[in-house]
Design brief:
With 153 residues, this protein is α+β, with helices and mostly antiparallel strands. It is built from four helices and four strands; from the N terminus they run H-E-H-E-H-E-H-E. 3% of the residues are buried.
């Protein structure tokens, strides 16, 4: 009987939990803007696509090297017998890789892309996003890739 009472209280306690929304302020997004161009939106989108394609080709001229990896030596199995010997012989240590050169090259590619866009008159600016939640509340999380999926204001 006590178990049923505790179970009933637990279920009703969990179901009465309320969710509160946090006021995160106005939404902002990063957009590529070229103030020197006075084109309608379709032509502006086309120009941005051309420049982004050109800058992507420019930044991909820099090769990204493979990580430098080494295979650690196998454990010395001398003096082991039975199960321990079998386990020791079959155990191959995993490769140890250094990705620092890969990360440096990817960062350099990103800098080349942004420099190319800037040289062509495009600036990445934070602008408010004009949207609303279908439930009447605030958006709580918006994410997208800044380089490949640029949203237009």
């Amino acid at each position: 009987m006590r178990f049923i009472l505790v179970l009933l209280l637990t279920i009703t306690g969990c179901s009465s939990a309320t969710y509160t929304r946090h006021n995160l302020g106005p939404l902002e997004g990063e957009f590529w803007v070229n103030r020197s161009l006075s084109l309608n939106q379709p032509k502006l989108n086309f120009e941005l696509s051309k420049i982004k394609g050109s800058c992507n080709m420019e930044c991909h001229k820099l090769p990204v090297p493979s990580p430098s990896c080494v295979q650690p030596p196998k454990q010395d199995c001398t003096g082991m017998t039975g199960f321990a010997l079998g386990f020791c012989r079959s155990n191959t240590p995993s490769m140890k890789c250094d990705y620092s050169s890969v990360n440096i090259a990817k960062q350099a590619r990103s800098e080349i892309f942004y420099s190319c866009m800037s040289a062509n008159g495009w600036q990445l600016e934070k602008l408010p996003i004009q949207a609303s939640d279908s439930l009447g509340g605030l958006f709580e999380y918006v994410a997208y890739d800044q380089i490949t999926n640029i949203i237009f204001a």
